[in-house]
Amino acid sequence: MEKWTGFKTDLWQQTIDVRNFIQQNYTPYSGDDAFLVNPTDRTTKLWQKCSELLTEERLNNGVLAIDAEKVSTITSHQPGYIDQSLETIFGLQTDAPLKRSLIVNGGIRMAEQAAQAYNYTVNPEISDIYHNHCTTHNTAVFNTYTEEMRQVRRVGLITGLPDAYGRGRIIGDYRRIALYGTEMLIENKKNDFAELNRQPMLDDLIRLREETAAQIAALHDMETMAKSYGFDISRPAETAMEAVQWLYFGYLAAIKEQNGAAMSLGRVSTFLDIYIERDLAAGVIDESEAQELIDQLVIKLRLARHLRTPDYNDLFAGDPLWITEAIGGIGLDGRHLVTRTSYRILHSLTNLGPAPEPNLTVLWSAGLPVNFKQYCTKMSITTSSLQYENDDLMRPIYGDDYAIACCVSAMEVGKQMQFFGARANLAKALLLAINGGRDEKTGEQVVPDIEMLEDGCLDYDKVRTNYSKVLDWLAGTYINTLNVIHYMHDKYAYEQAQMALHDTDVKRTMACGVAGLSVVADSLSAIKFARVKPIRDQRGIAVDFTVAGDFPCYGNDDDAVDSLAVEVTGEFNQKLKTHPTYRNAEHTLSILTITSNVMYGRKTGATPDGRKAGQAFAPGANPMHGRDKRGALAAMNSVSKLNYNNCRDGISYTFSIVPSALGKSTNGRATNLTALIDGYFAQSGHHININVLDREILIDAMDHPENYPQLTIRVSGYAVNFIKLTRPQQEEVLSRTFFRAV
């Protein structure tokens, strides 16, 4: 079959334009799920082998094997197979499934510590080279950090920074390899490189030329890697099987080269559907074989692994890669983007059982087909594996070919990337405002020139004035820290494979974040509406608080407190924007914690809302545990008030409800859950994780993990195998509100 036979011609044949190809060639599907089929025998046998390996991995302290002898690159390892006779999609990160590789450009110490945690020793030659002869990203960053940057990191005011691991949150347009082949992509990059001769050779241009040259080399390496498996990706894919395989090789190159904190897949299902439907129409494959291609792609994605330290797992629990696939949405021309392959990739949760990866993300719109909405909510009810994001909110900003980086961060595929910035601890910032700029744990002076408040009950206006001063200082320190990190990451740990699958001239965002928002909102509410008196120790630092009187809590649809959350995020976003960014990146802000809400709580003292020292924060934009007392709708209403324009990096909300609260029948529950999502997004809610399960199941899984190998739950912006969480993290999940009524 010729490469583009049967496809409608348009601009995509003259220039690199995957969106145009999709718009000209995809077939919207508004029907139901009746066409879906069971897994093939080959897939079932392959997944059984994988399940056995996954069990072995879990029993081996979470890591099956590590290759500590060589540094991972696109071409570093010989081909690896699970069972070649059963596989239809090929390629592993190393020469064996679930064997983790060394990626050291981000930091040699982290690689060594991660290996040591599992009783491996990094090849001494590698250690010598990267300690004594090659500068890593981590070394360069810490050589450059100011003392205040080190201090805010140390005390937990800014934590999770990508200064020792890959920053991630970059989405290569892996579809380009399938549509064009690497030969055409290389020629396009060479043309861009030649155009860069025409300008003065100054810093920005020299750097871009070096990066473009690295991108061209990465495309050649992808060809070499694919040839080792017997495939020629220099040419465009000619069949559905090749389209899936070519696309996967691009993703595989990215995860062989980078250990980024989030390695999203993009928005591939509608693209792949074009090839699948063409082959189905030509009789090249049948529905069973079409589903097999998707199931086997999903199997490969489920086996992706990176080597992490225990400290990293404390921040980002459950071994995630955030292989996020965006599904659905509406086109700018009004046609929905749901296809049969949108169903097929979701159906992998039935054929293979629930799993956290890939991070399946439905781009929800009022205009999606009812059948598809019902199918999605049924899958949420049975698997708790999906998240939903508001396409009607994002499409006017990002168009109709955006995807989600990590959890909630939208970007145009192949045209935009972000500088990941972790998050600032807003609750600790409030305590700094109350304590004259001193850290409540260590007592050290962190923020200068903050007035010490008088004894007695806290005065709201004085606290709020101090808080604004702290946020002002924090915003500048935060941006300066991120500028250092991303300058050094570009220099020493550049993502040439992923950026080779972008336009040469890309848009960039500086993706800042916050944690502890609901703690701050409730604390300010307590100070404003009740009487809050700090209990100070011999240092004069508030170590606890007494609260007399009632105050409204965020999460109950009460503007008196919800407006405080809106106000604080808007203020911090505006303060961030006053500080210049590396490469003129656009400032964005997220309300997202991953599982670091537990760690942040541990690093933060008692707060005026009544939260005790060390107690976990709520995840993301969630109300604090147990305080959203007016039911599901009220909690959703509070979260939906947060202004997406002030939080363009995303607003994560995790929603848990017991099945009986949604109705008695499966169809009734799906209908009611669909209505809840429709209503939440109609009020400009941005994102929602949905768990539909009983708390008792989680309790039993804590005691008998062997009975729940695939129990999946949504946390802040992603999904995890519940049994992979630490005990404190599991207990935090249990302490969240599980709504028993709407």
UniProtKB/TrEMBL annotation:
The PFL domain, residue ranges: 1-612
NCBIfam families membership: pyr_form_ly_1
Domain called Glycine radical: residue spans: 619-742
GO molecular function: formate C-acetyltransferase activity
Any single GO BP term: carbohydrate metabolic process
Classification via InterPro entries: Auton_GlycylRad_Cofactor, Form_AcTrfase, Form_AcTrfase_GR_CS, Gly_radical, PFL_dom
Organism lineage string: unclassified sequences, metagenomes, ecological metagenomes
Catalytic activity: formate + acetyl-CoA = pyruvate + CoA
GO terms under cellular component: cytosol
Xref: Pfam families: Gly_radical (PF01228), PFL-like (PF02901)
Family classification: Belongs to the glycyl radical enzyme (GRE) family. PFL subfamily.
EC number: 2.3.1.54
Protein name: formate C-acetyltransferase
UniProt keyword annotations, A-Z: Acyltransferase, Carbohydrate metabolism, Cytoplasm, Organic radical, Transferase
Localization per Swiss-Prot or TrEMBL: Cytoplasm
